[in-house]
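Task: sequence design from structure.
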């Protein structure tokens, strides 16, 4: 395993996450910085319950925790990535705030007993649009009244949003497209919701 970029801000700032040698694509620091700057500006992280649906190294979930989220669920089914996630939980001493779920998001999403305030959906770029659309629908149903952060390759324009949900914010970074998705009824109520 190699080392991922560090957590960039908050209580865990500077701590490194373990990344498997193959199969994980951590979100680039400049992309991550933009995502979390936008979340922070909207007050969406403080005491939030967070889902990281394709956790990988846990870069997004741990960054959210570092910046004030109350708890994080990391969903991952790759064995090597799970070793890294569990090691990071122990190393950071956050076992009371972080739950690692060793399953795919498709298999576990219907069994969540809690709802989320913020959910990250960052599937492998090779994941086809139809599958991402299905996962997005499941995650949105687990995040009523919350914000879903979707990361996809810019060239992939085929993801269909669930009925009643809209893009409230988006940015492009090279081949990466980031979108904040919320229920349409909330998009106009949050500062910056139309930007």
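Answer:
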């Amino acid at each position: 395993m190699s080392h991922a970029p560090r957590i960039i801000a908050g209580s865990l700032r500077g701590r490194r996450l373990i990344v498997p040698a193959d199969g994980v694509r951590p979100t680039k620091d400049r992309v991550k910085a933009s995502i979390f700057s936008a979340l922070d500006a909207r007050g969406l992280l403080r005491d939030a319950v967070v889902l990281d649906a394709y956790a990988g190294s846990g870069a997004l979930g741990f960054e959210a925790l570092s910046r004030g989220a109350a708890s994080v669920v990391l969903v991952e089914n790759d064995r090597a990535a799970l070793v890294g996630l569990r090691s990071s939980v122990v190393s950071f001493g956050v076992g009371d705030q972080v739950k690692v779920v060793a399953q795919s998001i498709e298999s576990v999403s219907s069994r969540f007993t809690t709802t989320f305030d913020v959910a990250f959906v960052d599937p492998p770029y090779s994941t086809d649009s139809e599958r991402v659309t299905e996962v997005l629908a499941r995650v949105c149903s687990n995040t009523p009244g919350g914000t879903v952060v979707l990361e996809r390759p810019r060239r992939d324009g085929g993801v269909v949003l669930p009925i009643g949900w809209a893009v409230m914010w988006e940015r492009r970074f090279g081949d990466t497209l980031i979108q904040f998705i919320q229920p349409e009824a909330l998009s106009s109520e949050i500062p910056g919701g139309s930007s």
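Strands lie at 2-6, 16-19, 49-52, 71-75, 98-101, 118-121, 147-153, 165-173, 176-183.
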